Amino acid sequence: MKQLYLIPLAFLFFACKNEVREKPLEGKVEREQITVVTKVPGKVAEIRVQEGEFVHAGDTLVILDIPEVDAKAEQAQGALQSAEAQYNMATKGATRGQLVQLQAKVDGLKEQYEFAEKSINRLKNLLRDSLVSQQKYDETYAKYQGAKNQYLAAQAEMEEARNGARYEQQVMALGQKERALGAVAEVKVAAREKYLIAPQDMSVETVNLNVGELATAGYAVINGYINNATYFRFTVPENRVGKLNRGSEVILRVPYLDNKEIKGRVVAMKALSSYANISTAYPDYDNQLTVFEVKVVPQDHAEVSDLLTKTLVVLQAP
């Protein structure tokens, strides 16, 4: 009779032993990161923040020493002054003294032209009466034409001096001026890069350089976390992802805070193509199953602002 009672108990023992209990979904506390980099190389002159400090958008984090920018600023300013002078000279024309000189030249050539005109008119009458030779008349006529052309050329020179240089020269001078203005603006932009500014509200995680060290272009000087950007990341196999839906509300537990419960909402689900992205250290599912990344955001960001990054969080099954 005792053997009859032992047989059912043995089956019950092995059945309980073979029963696999489904493990909870484990994930990590994550925060959106932000990096402040340099655009212009320079030495670190001053660091105004410390690791762990919270800063607001627009706060100065680091000041760089860039002596090359100051040198280029002087060069650009000198080029601008020269270009402005060239442009003003092209548009305003000659100076007052130059105009006086040109007017005197025009007046002198006018007198020569009028005298040559009177001479040729007298010789024209004498030639008609055969009182002068044709050779004499031709020589005087050539002098008359020369005086006339010189007078007309002086008038044109005077007109150009009053109106400024030709249109093409003015356009060329204007282009040089605008180019110099662009160089000055470029230097001003580079000068602003001396100051590394917080792009938004953030907490400083690491400061990667010390005072006196060189920051090359594109170097990540400050790493930090964006404010109110905490989320929870889980890797879920396809045989369990069906219980979760985008927009559904879930309950999370934080083990290191005595299983503190946090309300969250599923916002994204996507398939992972690399095993290195798995957040749990001991996956207990078949390698043939596709793994999905599930992103959960808290309903109250203030409640999770002090959570430690990369700590364990458990997702309770819906």
Automatic annotation (TrEMBL):
Coiled coil: 66-164
Gene3D superfamilies for this protein: 2.40.50.100, Helix hairpin bin (1.10.287.470)
Domain of life where this protein originates: Bacteria
Keywords per UniProt: Coiled coil
Name by which UniProt lists this protein: Biotin/lipoyl-binding protein
N-terminal signal peptide: none
Organism: Sphingobacterium chuzhouense
UniProt cross-references to PANTHER family, sorted A to Z: 36 KDA ANTIGEN-RELATED, MEMBRANE PROTEIN
